[in-house]
Design goal:
The chain is mainly α and 323 residues long. It has two domains: 66 residues, no CATH class; 228 residues, MetI-like fold (Orthogonal Bundle), CATH 1.10.3720. Helix content is 65%, strand content 7%. The protein is built from twelve helices and five strands. A three-stranded antiparallel beta sheet has the order 1-3-2. Strands 4-5 form a two-stranded antiparallel sheet. Strand 2 and strand 3 form a beta hairpin. Helix 6 packs across helix 10.
């Protein structure tokens, strides 16, 4: 892939040696862990031979201790180079991660605000056609796989109803103008992928808010508030909603982490140039370092957000303690 179809065997062997692919698999694995680690072990040679230790690129680095012919070095994690583009994997992730974060944030904000609003309505109008309609929508939304929903929504709003909506089936946030003289933001390209990505958490938030509101509205202090003559709006927004939102907020935080991992198919179908698009493209091209780098990045983000969720939950609910 890197040398082209006309590469001779000697050139291919040289590339394999440079990438360490001529070594046993266990040695390749430990070398990759060594590259990822903040503390890594390297031979005492010219540091410029480890190009990713170049202070112009990965500053700062420093030698912690020398161990015989090797040195223990403090550095940033090295995710290697893409087979396809020869670019640093970390540089590709740095370029595409902001697009994924924008998409995930917009999707979770849309799902949260609309989900809480519809959940409150569903609870207030329990057993009416409003309630049944919202429950049917939420059940349908949770059962739709992301890739199928993306195809269906894209076909409907960007093809069948395109003259009405004016939306594009594919497109990125930053678009080069027709004359190639500059770039501009095309915010309408964010609508369909954000809506598609937000359908499942929206469905969950509707049911979660509804159930939580019904539970809170049956409590004694709500009946006391009504008996004191407070208006229904004061009862709902000043007393019931605050306590009902605790499990919803926790769920919102957890779903934001899930969205970071669930953008892969949505981004690829709508050609949204984010981390998910890069993952699928790298899988098609068998670009292993890029696949590994993107998956590791998404995994780290997922773990960090879930840890923050656990910590935040203890702040929202005094009954929960962190041990």
């Amino acid at each position: 892939m890197m040398m082209g179809q006309r590469a001779d065997s000697a050139s291919v062997a040289a590339v394999r040696q440079d990438l360490g692919l001529d070594k046993p698999i266990y040695q390749q694995y430990f070398k990759y862990l060594n590259d990822l680690s903040l503390l890594s072990l390297h031979e005492n040679v010219n540091k410029q031979s480890y190009f990713y230790l170049d202070p112009k690129v990965y500053s700062p680095y420093s030698t912690i201790v020398r161990i015989g012919s090797h040195s223990l070095i403090l550095k940033y994690p090295y995710l290697r180079r893409s087979y396809q583009s020869k670019k640093e994997v970390s540089a590709i992730i740095k370029e595409t991660l902001p697009n994924t974060l924008i998409l995930a944030v917009v999707a979770i904000v849309f799902a949260s605000l609309l989900g809480i609003f519809l959940g409150i309505l569903s609870a207030l109008y329990k057993d009416t056609w409003y309630d049944r309609g919202f429950l049917f929508f939420s059940t349908l939304g949770m059962s739709l796989p992301s890739f199928f929903a993306a195809i269906l929504i894209g076909w409907l709003f960007a093809f069948v109803l395109a003259p009405v909506t004016g939306l594009n089936l594919t497109g990125n946030l930053i678009v080069l103008d027709d004359f190639g003289e500059g770039v501009h933001y095309e915010w309408k390209n964010l609508i369909l992928p954000a809506f598609t990505l937000g359908i499942r958490p929206l469905s969950v938030f509707i049911q979660l808010t509804r159930n939580s509101m019904l539970d809170v509205l049956s409590q004694d202090y709500i009946r006391t508030a009504r008996a004191k003559g407070l208006s229904e709006g004061q009862v709902i927004f000043k007393h019931a909603l605050k306590n009902a939102l605790n499990p919803v907020i926790t769920s919102i935080s957890g779903w934001f982490a899930s969205l970071m991992a669930g953008v892969v198919f949505v981004e690829y179908i709508f050609a949204w140039k984010g981390l998910g698009f890069v993952v699928v493209d790298a899988l098609k091209n068998q670009d292993l370092p890029l696949v590994l780098g993107c998956v590791l990045t998404i995994s780290v983000i997922f773990i960090i957000i879930n840890l923050l969720v656990d910590f935040t939950y203890s702040l929202l609910d005094p009954r929960v303690r962190m041990y």
